[in-house]
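Weekly structure sync, notes
Attendees: PL (lead), two postdocs, one rotation student
Agenda item 3: pending single-chain targets
PL asked that the sequence for the first pending target be pasted directly into the notes so everyone works from the same version. It is reproduced below exactly as submitted, 923 residues in total.
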Amino acid sequence: MSIYNDYLNEIEERKGQGLHPKPIDGAELLSEIIAQIKDVNNAYRADSLQFFIYNTVPGTTPAANVKAKFLKEIVLGESVVKEITVAFAFELLSHMKGGPSIEVLLDLALGSDVAIAKQAAEVLKTQVYLYDADMARLGDAFKSGNEIAKEILESYAKAEFFTKLPEVAEEIKIVTFIAGEGDISTDLLSPGNQAHSRSDRELHGKCMITPEAQAEIKALQAQHPDKSVMLIAEKGTMGVGSSRMSGVNNVALWSGKQASPYIPFVNIAPIVGGTNGISPIFLTTVDVTGGIGLDLKNWVKKVDEAGNVLRDESGDPILEEVYSVATGTVLTINTKTKKLYKGDQELIDISKAFTPQKLEFIKAGGSYAIVFGKKLQTFASKTLGIDTVPVFAPSKEVSIEGQGLTAVEKIFNKNAVGTTPGKILHAGSDVRVTVNIVGSQDTTGLMTSQELESMAATVISPIVDGAYQSGCHTASVWDNKSKANIPRLMKFMNDFGLITARDPKGVYHAMTDVIHKVLNDITVDDWAIIIGGDSHTRMSKGVAFGADSGTVALALATGEASMPIPESVKVTFKGTMKSYMDFRDVVHATQSQMLQQFGGENVFQGKIIEVHIGTLTADQAFTFTDWTAEMKAKASICISEDATLIESLEIAKSRIQIMIDKGMDNKNQVLQGLINKADKRIAEIQSGEKPALRPDANAKYYAEVVVDLDLIAEPMIADPDVNNVDVSKRYTHDTIRPLSFYGGDKKVDLGFIGSCMVHKGDMKILAQMLKNIENQQGKVEFKAPLVVAPPTYNIVDELKAEGDWEVLQKYSGFEFDDNAPKAAARTSYEKMLYLERPGCNLCMGNQEKAAKGDTVMATSTRLFQGRVVEDTEGKKGESLLSSTPVVVLSTVLGRTPTIEEYKTAVEGINLTKFAPSHKLLVK
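Predicted structure, written out during the meeting:
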């Protein structure tokens, strides 16, 4: 009773928070509940039945294993529960989504009791989450002449698990809710500072937008019980910033429908829209849940009679409303005509939201079921020795005669699975691809582990070259929430087959390195495809896609991902970079010049940025690819010279070796395997057998951007523009301003050097600047706090070996101590330098934060409202993003520097140099 009593106590605590009982995933608690169900006189029996039936987590959780075995006892008559008939037991098994439930169903279907076997077979015909061992059992039984096995396989071959599902409704009635004006970041839907609660879906749902917004959504549902509420980003894009399965889960929790009556707080089918559509990675997450994402285009640029775009005083295009989607507007989605209607009035074509593939996701309740279903049908057909019946929408194959391939098209063609043999595919094709590298981060990792359990996966796919579970998002503060969640996550992922930042056995030292940096190191092939649980999964080798926790789970379990081949935008450079400029300024100028070249249109949105960087090694080039997430690109690819790529691979090898030396490799020697792959790739390049990846000369691009380095005359700053009268233009990354805009007198309250945007060179620049300032002014005195968080331990070790860490220690007032990590987040800062533990720190916003209302100057990528700094009643917090030298000088001065002060401070310092490559001739 002790475990059950603890559960009852927890239930009472949750009642005080307005929450229902937490779903059960533990075997011990459910075993005690089952004992109480069997005891017909038990005082807790009625509640125990409710918990068993309606509040147990499915999949491969320990609780699911116990539940499946008890249901098997009921089916076989070994246990009798009057409230759970044999038919009801089979129904419960049918909702358990694989793992132990499939094992039980196979036991029953292949057993000696014919009546039971037929009932089990009928349930199995509806299931798709079967793995190799499950399929092998069916195949062996069929070969042994088992008729039930044959019957099940014949059903799978016809894909009856899909064809017998209800069709997608022709008309879907919706009522609108404006979730915000301008771009809506996933921080609004699932705040980073609430990351610890993401695996507790009901609790985490309380943080979506505001309590007032949640009440308004509920009120709309009460007024329109026959309609779905569509959350909208008015005059903006929905879901920018990161993929966040938790964001989609929250939207679905408040406005979707329950996936199963027996699975608590798992909702599907959310509907979201944006004037400028849905962020690509967020849209992928919507597909995971069988939802709908609409590009509303309800505001357009105003033009004069000659067709010229009219602009306001700031030079921005003037928008005019085509149709209203104000909160409470009733609209109709027609899935046959693929149009959006207001009454009988046709508003817009929405066919991109209802491709044959997306309609399948909607019908199946999510993309996972389609992925697993296709594999199951293929297996069954092969086992039966018959051709696969065309049931699913054929993959769209776009092949254009005489047209060359972009870099991403080459990678997708190399890694494609199940396409027409010998057919060359271009952008727009729908492709299944093998995934080489997978990354899971720690604040979404618990959800990834839940997704793996729900799809009944127990081991990493053997075709994945390497996978890593990070500890970077919880690196700053080792508090009780982290202590409760992270060790459990690390053990699960380590057992699953990932290399983990923390050793569950405690043998090697915890490595809280930023996930993107580690993935950048363990990617050892420029032809690789990488999937990572964070929007900044943007490698400088291969092509990397930030993804939701579910897509990460699918990649881990199957070694595959499915997506259209995106179009590319080619970025090249001309001119000369000035000696006092930093490469971060080139990154910001790229965005600014692109918007100028295309009249304010962001041609990067939803596309691959193919950047011809050439001469920058992986660390430095990553600064560009990392930022492409803020450019709203789907991903980016670096085109590199052969010698530069070899240098990058040698650096990667040395860092992987450090991980091996620490004891981080596993029994399959994944890390050693990556070093071997790097050696093979280097040999291919050196021999000329396979040079560094390059596009064809006759490849076709959506657009081409030429960045003029001569125009970059002063540091460039990404400004959240928090007081813009047009709310939709606040907190975007498109407002790029020169340093002189601030007149040398904008107060800076705190500086931050860290996150994935900096590399070892930035730390050396910091050390050099401090020495410079001391030489020029006699001492270094900070007029604003400066927080420094190196991205990796490797960088710290290299700085120590080269003497730079000693310089930083000299000027610091705090240095992290791994033997005594902080147990609580800072609430205030002194005017000094803080040397923080490697990891995300302020950028993530879930642990450390600036003081409310502060103006922060940061090397980070995040300027969203409330992320790095929250507002006060009288002042908006703002996070300005700039280069390392600007951040350092701003904290020493307590304000933005003038261009003259900046030039003086960086004199003689080795900033990150860049010169366009003259060797990148396409082949």
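Discussion points:
- The domain at 566-711 is CATH 3.40.1060.10 (Aconitase; Domain 2).
- The chain has a mean pLDDT of 93.
Action: rotation student to compare against the earlier draft before next sync.
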